[in-house]
Amino acid sequence: MKKQWTLLAAAAMLALSGCGGNGNDGGNTQGHTATAVTTEQGDTAHMNHSTSSELPEGMKEAVNPKFNIGSEAIMKTNHMPGMDGAVATIAGAYETTAYSISYTPVTGGERVTDHKWIVQEEIKDAKASPYESGADITVTADHMPGMKGAVATIDSAEPTTVYMVDYTPTTGGDPVHNHKWVTESELAPVK
């Protein structure tokens, strides 16, 4: 029983520390991304609020996106709790290829599987054409602890418009600003 409480306390501390940010963001939560990692004990938790609002070098704004900057859309995805069904305000729209990846954090720990999303411009020395499923790449994105510099395997690739969005989680809590990334297929018009 003591071991279970110790594991529970450790998981809670990990989850809380991942949500803290570094205090340099002026109160904004940027690039809010989460991925569930299942341990052998069955716990799931792996969340981070990236503090960078910078775009990767080479990002190209979408010329005619389905959702314009400043408009609202309903999110139909659950990269993290409270996203599915939340009303998002579009903060940016970019043409690229979005990738779902699996990787082991450079900081150690459990392998992260099916992390959605990184984009073509977040791959070290990216080639001009999209990568195929199964390709190994080096990640330059810093969405999660231990992601930057990790060697990842591409699970899927989707040429699409990706959106940076602001939203308030349906589960409550502080508004999230500049979440990177939501694909066009994960958004629906507000009715």
TrEMBL record:
Any one Pfam family match given in the protein's UniProt record, by short name: DUF1541
Residues annotated as domain DUF1541: 70-120, 133-184
Swiss-Prot/TrEMBL keywords: Signal
Chain residue ranges for the region called Disordered: 39-59
InterPro entries: DUF1541 (IPR011438)
Gene3D superfamilies assigned to the protein according to its UniProt record, in alphabetical order: Domain of unknown function DUF1541
Signal peptide interval: 1-23
Feature: compositional bias, Polar residues: 39-54
Protein name as catalogued: DUF1541 domain-containing protein
Organism: Paenibacillus albidus
Lineage: Bacteria, Bacillati, Bacillota, Bacilli, Bacillales
Gene: ydhK
